[in-house]
């Protein structure tokens, strides 16, 4: 009898289960915003490459996303249908999509209402402006670094990722989203200038030494997009393929100002690429060379001039780069996350290895002078440790123990302290203040126990430090950099990164670049 009841109940459930048709549900409810091919439209692309870190996808489908145009579909879709739709949009596409130069150019949208101001439309010091990225509702707040007044709050593309990049004069800022949109904003005018979709899934952006070019590192397609900073027009699309013919995602692109180049970390190739931003660069030889004498070069595969590429072979793929202040050396983390490799970019080879187990987060590393030596420090993503390294002989000076893995470090030339967070685990509400000379923790801040308290930034003069309560109902907390006492709280929607104009354009020691 029980067997018959179970069988009957399964028969009753079968029609309900059959109603889950994710392809049709996607076409009916999602395609108009996210594109019939799932590659995005007014909404972001819905593919694994862009959704990998988005939490609570089923909840977003059911309830929508606060402060966006994303509505909820709980009234139209059953729980089973929502689960099936989630599986559908997180499944790989049948073929790897492309995003051509023509499609990039066609996506460019310039703000027809934009009027460039002759001088800043505000009284604040334009060099002491701090931008706060609010990921809770996809906005950026523009702060006066002296009064901490919000001068403007503008909408950004969905899911801004990587640090904004400023023009060398500090007037314009460029922000990039996970789904490849790049936005230009005029700080003086407090207006958006325009935006363009450089790729389908991007990692970060970098500004050229002269402010003329913006490079966009892409996962999908495997490319580097170079834009004109003047009008966002695409000027070069570089397909990233290793010497053995393997396409590679670009983990990140970095500005190397002294070298007049971009430096690329490749995810899938044992190479580092350098792309020239100097029209007189090169030639860079990749094949056989018969003679290097001036005017007598006989070589295969040489590139020269603006955007010429130089390959630097390494033993294994490296990413999460940290650079010496003169940009001669780059330190990258290997895929296993158990060491750092120092590569001299002048000679084009590895010169040292650093024992850094626990996944060092080199991209957040900073440097300062200590006892006559330049040292660097990096947090670790896999353990509660901050490693301090002597940059003269690449020896380990000290490992500072913390109560959990951290993500960000900040300092300033005027401050005797380094600020370090605990980003992961039960102690994610802690912020450490570390003495640069003794390398000892002098104070632990924990204003929000159990909540994420992370990412600090100094004001231009180093007098104040801004830290984030990294929650949807969050805040930027302002501290006096000398007394270490709180002076102000600014309510924000999940504030993440904070970026001071002066610190970024002058490559302040305590700021990761």
Q: Can you offer a commentary on this structure?
A:
This protein is mainly beta and 513 residues long. The strands form eight sheets. The chain has a five-stranded antiparallel β-sheet. β30 (464-469) and β31 form a beta hairpin. Residues 17-93 form the Cytochrome c domain. InterPro entries: Cyt_c-like_dom, Cyt_c-like_dom_sf, Cyt_cd1_C_sf, Haem_d1_sf, Host-pathogen_enzymatic-act.
Please specify the SSE layout and strand pairing.
Layout: H1 2-18, H2 22-29, H3 31-34, H4 48-51, H5 57-63, H6 79-89, H7 101-106, E1 109-110, E2 129-134, E3 139-144, E4 150-155, E5 165-166, E6 172-176, E7 181-186, E8 191-197, E9 201-207, E10 213-220, E11 223-228, E12 234-239, E13 250-256, E14 261-266, E15 271-276, E16 309-313, E17 318-323, E18 329-334, E19 339-344, E20 349-355, E21 366-370, E22 373-379, E23 385-390, E24 396-401, E25 409-410, E26 417-421, E27 431-435, E28 441-445, E29 453-458, E30 464-469, E31 474-480, E32 486-492, E33 495-500, H8 501-505
Antiparallel strand pairs: 1-8, 2-3, 2-33, 3-4, 5-6, 6-7, 7-8, 9-10, 10-11, 11-12, 13-14, 14-15, 15-16, 17-18, 18-19, 19-20, 21-22, 22-23, 23-24, 25-26, 26-27, 27-28, 29-30, 30-31, 31-32
Helix pairs in contact: 2-6, 5-6
